[in-house]
Amino acid sequence: MNRRVGIVSMGYHGFSAVTPDLSYRELVYLAASKAYAAAGIEPQHVDMFICAAEDFCEGYSISDEYCNDQLGAVKKPVQTVCGEYLQAIGNACMLIQSGLGKLVVVEAHSKASNMKTHDDVLSFGMDPIWNRPLKVTPHFVAGLDMHRYLLDTGTTEEQCAAIVVKNKANAMLNPSAAHAGRFTVADVLRAETVAWPVNRLSIAPRADGCIVTVLAEESLARQLNSSPVWITGTGWATETTALETRRWGSAPSAEIASQMAYKEAGITVPSQQIDLFEVDDSYAYRELQALEALKVFGKGQALHALDEGRLGPTGDCPVNVSGGSLGVGHLLEATGAQKLLELFLQLSFKAGERQLPDVTTGLAQAWRGVPTTTSAVVICSNE
Amino acid sequence: MGYNKVACVGAGITRFVRRAKETGRELAWEAAKMALDSAGMTLKDIDCVVMGTAPDAFDGVHMKGEYLADGSGGFCKPYMRHFVGGGTGVFAPIHGWQHVASGKFDTCLVVCEEKMSSTFPHPQGAFITIFDHTTEQALGPTLIWIFALEMNRYMQRWGLSERDVAKVSVQNKANAIDHPAAQLGQKITVEDVLNSEVLAWPVKRLDISPASDGAAAIILTNEHKARQVTDKPVWVSGVGWCLETAYWATRDLYYPVYVEKAAKMAYDMAGIREPDKEIHVAEPYDPFDYKMLHHMEGLLLCKRGEAAKLVADGVTARTGRLPCCPSGGALGVGNPIAATGLMKIIELFLQLRGEAGKRQIPGDPRVGVAQAWGDLMQVGTVVVMNR
Amino acid sequence: MLNEKLPGTPMSSEEFEKAITIEDHPALEYAWDDGVAIGRYLKELKNGRIVARTCSGCDRIMIPPRMFCELCWRPTDEWHFVKDTGVVNTFAVTRVNWDASRRGPNEPPLMPAVIEIDGASKGMGILHLLGDVDPKKVKIGMKVKAVWKPEKERTGAITDIKYFKPY
Amino acid sequence: MAFTERLTRNVDMTAWHGKIPVHYRYTLGLAGEKFFTALKKDGKFLATRCDRCGITYAPPSVYCERCFDALDTWIELPPTGTLMSFTVVTEDSSGHALKEPQIIGAVQLDGADTVLIHRICPHCVDCLCPGARVKAVLLEKKKRAGGINDIVHFEILE
Q1: What's the CA dihedral at C124, C127, C132, C137 to 10 degrees?
Q2: Interchain contact, A119 vs D91, CB within 8 Å
Q3: D63/B33 Cβ within 8 A
Q4: What is residue B176's DSSP assignment?
């Protein structure tokens, strides 16, 4: 990357199951005011703003109209990206590397609690001719994918349940986690089936929350923050639209996205060069599937790393120490932002009780959920 | 500015029609394939894909960007969808510019698509949900209301008559006769416009562009790649975008400040100081006839309140000093929202290469500006191109 | 050069009606949290009053009220009641409903307008409807007053004001 | 930097209810029209072939997503295939419990390189395994309306 981009600050609010006392404007203002205060800036100093949002999550036909007032971005260059937060971070880096902007803010929020018919909205994402008329829960896509993944890798339902146990336990040390808890594998396996082999407890429950990131070009970043967290690599990819033509049981989009990011960050052996991972766990099996797509482990090897305790907070390859989406809650388009936030807190040594010792490099990877095949990756470092 | 130069090297467009048999995915493919063929390129030559498409409520699919991915060439590629209301069509090349100017990618396929005909009882019904859900939607508003409110304010502020405004519709719909994608190219008179059904006074049927299905695509590359692909690259020399407050009823609608701010951002980048003299061809956004005038002023192509005079004096005709909407605009070619803006970018691309056929303006046009508008009278997206 | 034969397959409305199509009535339903400012705005509408918020940074009196000033980027200071009268900034007269269906011959036209509310900052308007006035007589700059629903019919909504009429 | 006041009683926390009030009628598309007309009239399964990539798309597509070639080679495939994966769902598309679980499978028709997503016969639960041979069960001709539900489900072949 010709110009280094630094994360100066991240402001966040919410991460609770519901936020009934705040309108979406008020929720975003609170997160933005924390981010700007931590960076010591006013919104008029900011060159560009990017919001990650989807119309039908907000309940508007043109939701980008309503994103700038609460960011203080009136009469400013503001663009809405209908994609994962980590894609918007990649876009912000491009704005800075193009030289068009020095100070860029990226925002996303979840007001999932305001969606009365969440499953209907998700089903409305299916192809209307080939898939939607089957009229079954959208989680069927994850059911087909998980089943194929178990067959291809020999991973068991018990191991996927162990991911739920690990992440919800990690979340006990995260004050911003809505769905923490102590569970056993047996508890998780006892949960009701939704789309076998996917059951209720292995689906990341939803949460409300907003996250605002302040990014700056290298020299400005150093002025605003004595030790910013650097973004050393970004990547994103979409496999395909169709359920009919995708490679079931694997995550090619995560693989392609990570190759892009690794190339920029100069990473050749992820498991050795990256100290912590915050990867997609919107369904428990996806954490293992993602680690293999990211080439952290070989195909069918992630399960051994799990069994040997390597993925835990004290392991040599800590994954989702924040609690992940299973523990913190799924934040719609802001899901990747929560993963990036954990990297920022860990690499700034501000992660409190769950702080990992001497960490320098972290990777965040997020997926946009059913029925999509879009993944995004951001690699950060504090060197 | 340390960015890489970015050029447009290819373009493709489908017909704009009231109802298309194709699915949105198929429409996107038709335009994207034509753009690749026009540049002699294949999907292998494309590093990344940018998709611009407006409300999901039109095609009727949640996360519509994901739904259109395979038809847009996004298979196993970096693919990102942006959405800034009606401004999406001209923001698409800006988003593509960001991908290439940063140096992260060498080539970018920019695709815009809209299929409005799936929406019932009428595509216009999807517009009730652009208003504030708590303080406005209960009044039963539709998009035409806000245009009528703005048109009335604009005409009242500058003392214009409905007749002055109607001339824009006459000019653009006539220009569209020469555009192969046109849905409503036709010879009409000012009287036809004045006598057409009043939808929301002062807006009448022939003051408005139609709801349409359609797709368009262009290919952007860096300078090195552009030289390999064509000997007539058209450079994206200026980009600008600006979003006003959502509290639209607290701003005076007669002048689009957000268009001016976006235009100045683009002009500064392109080194243009006197747009009314240095611009050779313009494609202001014209979903309604008065809107072309409104945006000509926001683009600083003339003094405030004087755009109507330029149209009346033939200055904006294809043979005039400053041709505006030689393509036929949204009024004539059609208005599949996101694809409309990109149709205007494609018109600049063809005009500046002297390849606009029957629509070609005389002389040697070297600098053009295209603009789109959207949201609640709120977003301006402006691109300057030059050869 | 755009060749004459562009892709795209148009269908007439007859062809569309004859063709096989897949129909879907999605349930896309929401309950948006009002929050502090809009929550109070709706409560006061139920009480027959219009409440605004003030900002000492830019001296604006803002409706609809908001807990932050988007221009000064600071919290707004106080609640402030404004009048239920105002001035027509602009208006339209329409016989078309939200879904493009036409209003019946004996149905009066809808007259949407931006009404600058007295007591709020200059130019601070809201969208509402005009009523009880001949469309030909409506002028920009006309002074209008809110006509409220009877108290027991008010629910805490912008429609608790039926319309604004000249006074 | 926060607000001068917050809501501190849950009874003051109100919400405004609303919805997106439009509905939809989708065309089948160029590929869909051909596929569903053949299925409706003759109970036949059509596919398209991309010769450059050596891929047969079933269900068909008029373009190849990989190389972007136009696909105008139409072929007919048998109604039989192989079950690549399946899942047992307990909820409908609104998240409400189904009266009884349904099985959704990814079926690769013989001769196809892609899968068709559809229901699997609920009575075949015990002989369900990926790799199983399946056959399409269609509605009788006069009941077929042209759509994916013209297929009742795929049954497992012993």
Answers
A1: 70
A2: yes
A3: yes
A4: G
Instruction: Mention every residue, 6+ apart, whose C-beta is less than 8 A from residue D76.
Output: D38, D44, D45, D46, D47
Note down the domain range covering A90.
5-116+206-224
Residue in this structure with the two tokens 């199509």, named with its chain if needed:
C21
Question: For B6-119+210-386, CATH number?
Answer: 3.40.47.10
Nearest chain B Cα distance for residue C99, angstroms:
4
Angle between helices A284-293 and A157-170 (to 10 degrees): 100
- Give, as one character, the DSSP assignment of residue C159: G
In a domain, A9, yes or no: yes
C19-54 pLDDT, tens digit each: 999 999 999 999 999 999 999 999 999 999 999 999
Architecture of the domain spanning D27-156: Beta Barrel (2.40)
**Does residue A150 belong to any structural domain of this protein?**
no
* CATH of residue A78: 3.40.47.10
pLDDT in tens, C58-97: 999 999 999 999 999 999 999 999 999 999 999 999 999 9
Instruction: State the best of C15, C22, C41, C74 to mutate against chain D, taking most chain D CBs within 10 Å.
Output: C22
Q: How many domains does chain A have?
A: 1
Nearest residue to A231 via CA among A74, A368, A88:
A88
- Measure the CA–CA gap between B330 and B184, rounded to whole angstroms: 9
Residue recorded with tokens 């001035």:
C87
For the residues B47-70, what does the mean pLDDT come to? 97
- What DSSP letter does each residue of B106-135 carry, written as one string? SEEEEEEEEE-TTEES-GGGGGGGGS-TTT
Contact C28 A59 (CB under 8 A): yes
Strand blocks (E) in chain B? 6-13, 48-52, 79-82, 107-115, 119-120, 198-201, 203-204, 213-222, 234-243, 281-283, 367-374, 379-386
pLDDT at residue number B1: 53
* Mean local confidence (pLDDT), A109-120: 98
Q: Do C90 and B250 touch (CB under 8 A)?
A: no
CB B58 within 8 Å of CB B24:
no
Would you kindly state where each structural domain of chain D is located, as residue ranges? 27-156
ipTM score over 0.95, yes or no: yes
